[in-house]
């Protein structure tokens, strides 16, 4: 992990309510000084009182080395959010599968590099702009944005923050929004999951998968088929998966049909390509497939053109008449394109916080990594080792720098 001192800015003009901005005037780049090079960046001495803070920055598309830790500087001692915005001292950030795709240039919702990635974080409000009644300075919040949250200090519209419920840690909070909003909306808004039904959850030990499995159990008597590497099957059972399937050594379609010859009621499809077709064929009459990812695109550290071609070649396609004859539904979900649906997302978060407070859902944090170890964090997910959420923190955790957590 290297530190680099070139001046960088996030999206030049992100759409309203989308990306987090640097915590000072977003239209002009702030001078950035490399660690140990105070006052040199931008060719001018930065204001002596300007607060320095660290940010992870994607400097270009490619391998792990494209993510750098940089030091930036505010014009003043404290951030000064504009009207309707708040500034947050970030304590933990979520790593999402989309961040791996984004690094390779495969996630279209990330503004072009150089850009600070990061769609979710948690921290404490340190400043509130004019007209912001909530959250208040000192409140602990979760933050959702299109990008820009892997920084020690971020400034976002107040309506992109959500108060953390009592008893929730910053690490849990960084594992909450993206995974649970996605899982909730695909299972209930699109999937319409009801009691005595069955669900196939792919990547069941991952962030969204773990959340989906927990949410399935808020409905009575749901049979959960969950795919994951064999080493994760004990964890799957513990989390509530009825039938863990090792998709790496067995044909998951056959495995499902051995137990449920008619198939399943709901398929959650984060894989894309030929897996969407397999999922669709596994649906019972009146079944629903919700597609929400293309994990099959990711085969290594860099963009794989063969995998891309194969995935797109096998892309599922169907027409309305075929759907009519088959009595099945196909839905597509992308949280990244719902960023202007503030009320809709807020209503889902309210329901999720209630479920958390009732003890019905609890984020599973796989591991916590300081910003300096962002490469190790990304490897953990890309090498299929995580069970639950991979979390980044600006400050090194006290016990040990990067170890897996029990929760
Ligand atoms: N549409 C949306 O709004 C939205 C929002 C959030 C997430 N998603 C999608 O949901 C899926 C899960 O996301 P997540 O952030 O929770 O990640 P995650 O599930 O924690 O991802 C890592 C795990 O996925 C499994 N995996 C399957 N194929 C893989 C591949 N090609 N490369 C690496 N790992 C692979 C691995 O476990 P096993 O192999 O052991 O299963 C790995 O440990 C992704 O497809 C993501 O893009 C979509």
TrEMBL record:
Q: Which residue ranges have biased composition labelled Low complexity?
A: 1-36
Gene, per the UniProt record: VAT1
Q: Extract the SMART domains matched here.
A: PKS_ER
Xref: InterPro entries: ADH-like_N, ER, GroES-like_sf, NAD(P)-bd_dom_sf, SV-ATPase_mito-regulator
Where does the record place the Enoyl reductase (ER) domain? 62-392
- Single Gene Ontology BP term? negative regulation of mitochondrial fusion
Q: Which UniProt keywords apply?
A: Oxidoreductase
Species assigned in the record: Eublepharis macularius (Leopard gecko)
Taxonomic classification: Eukaryota, Metazoa, Chordata, Craniata, Vertebrata
Q: What is this protein called?
A: Synaptic vesicle membrane protein VAT-1 homolog
GO molecular-function annotation terms? oxidoreductase activity
């Amino acid at each position: 992990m290297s530190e680099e001192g070139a001046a960088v800015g996030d999206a030049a003009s992100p759409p309203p309510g989308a990306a987090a901005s640097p915590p000072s005037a977003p239209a002009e780049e702030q001078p950035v000084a490399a660690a140990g090079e105070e006052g040199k960046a931008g060719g001018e001495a930065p204001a002596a009182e300007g607060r320095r803070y660290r940010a992870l920055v994607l400097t270009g598309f490619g391998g792990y080395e494209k993510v750098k830790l940089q030091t930036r500087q505010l014009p003043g001692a404290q951030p000064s959010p504009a009207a309707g915005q708040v500034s947050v001292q970030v304590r933990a950030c979520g790593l999402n599968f989309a961040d791996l795709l984004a690094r390779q240039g495969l996630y279209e919702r990330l503004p072009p590099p150089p850009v600070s990635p990061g769609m979710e974080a948690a921290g404490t409000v340190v400043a509130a702009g004019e007209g912001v009644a909530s959250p208040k300075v000192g409140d602990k919040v979760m933050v959702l944005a299109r990008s820009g949250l892997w920084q020690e200090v971020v400034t976002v519209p107040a309506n992109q923050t959500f108060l953390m419920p009592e008893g929730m840690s910053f690490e849990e909070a960084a594992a909450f929004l993206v995974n649970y909003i996605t899982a909730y909306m695909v299972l209930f808004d699109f999937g319409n999951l009801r009691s005595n039904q069955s669900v196939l959850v792919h990547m069941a030990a991952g962030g969204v998968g773990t959340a989906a499995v927990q949410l399935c159990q808020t409905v009575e008597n749901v049979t959960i088929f969950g795919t994951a590497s064999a080493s994760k099957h004990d964890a799957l059972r513990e989390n509530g998966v009825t039938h863990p399937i090792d998709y790496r050594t067995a044909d998951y379609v056959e495995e499902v049909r051995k137990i449920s010859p008619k198939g399943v009621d709901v398929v959650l499809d984060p894989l894309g390509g030929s897996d969407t077709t397999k999922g669709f064929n596994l649906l019972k009459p009146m079944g629903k497939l919700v597609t929400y990812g293309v994990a099959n695109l990711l085969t290594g550290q860099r963009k794989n053109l063969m995998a891309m071609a194969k995935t797109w070649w096998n892309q599922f396609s169907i027409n309305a008449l075929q759907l009519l004859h088959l009595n099945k539904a196909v839905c597509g979900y992308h949280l990244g394109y719902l960023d202007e649906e503030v009320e809709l997302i807020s209503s889902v978060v309210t329901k999720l916080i209630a479920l958390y407070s009732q003890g019905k859902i609890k984020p599973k944090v796989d591991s916590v990594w300081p910003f300096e170890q962002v490469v190790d964090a990304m490897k953990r997910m890309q090498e299929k080792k995580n069970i639950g959420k991979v979390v980044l923190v600006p400050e090194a955790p006290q016990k040990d720098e990067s170890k897996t957590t029990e929760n």
